[in-house]
Amino acid sequence: MQKGLLHHIEIYVSDLKQTIEFWGWLLEELGYTSFQEWESGHSWKLGDTYIVFVQAEDKFLNPPYHRCRVGLNHLAFHSSSRQHVDEMTKRLKERKVKILYSDKHPFAGGNNHYAVYFEDPDRIKVELVAPN
Prior knowledge:
Layout: E1 8-13, H1 16-29, E2 33-38, E3 41-46, E4 49-55, E5 74-78, H2 82-94, E6 99-100, E7 115-119, E8 125-129
Parallel strand pairs: 1-4, 5-8
Antiparallel strand pairs: 2-3, 3-4, 6-7, 7-8
């Protein structure tokens, strides 16, 4: 195992069922497979890295998550190609997922950065980036 390689990410969510619906199809499209499942959580794995979503306890739901506060701003994933970014953008729109920075899409990150930006049910920003 390479030192420094990300082992896992764990994210607490406000509605686990909604999160599983959103992230399940997205992560599986990116090559992840369902890894662990229990009453208050679910994870998906790709290689040696996995992403875990856990239902937050009611007493921790307020204030809600906001990416501009201290903490996680967004998650960015590699895409296989610009065509894949375009296909995923279409699928996101079909699922009624809001595309962020749509006025600059797909170059919202700059002229040499082909990507789609969107939000999960808790408004965590997600980015899917095509290779250069």
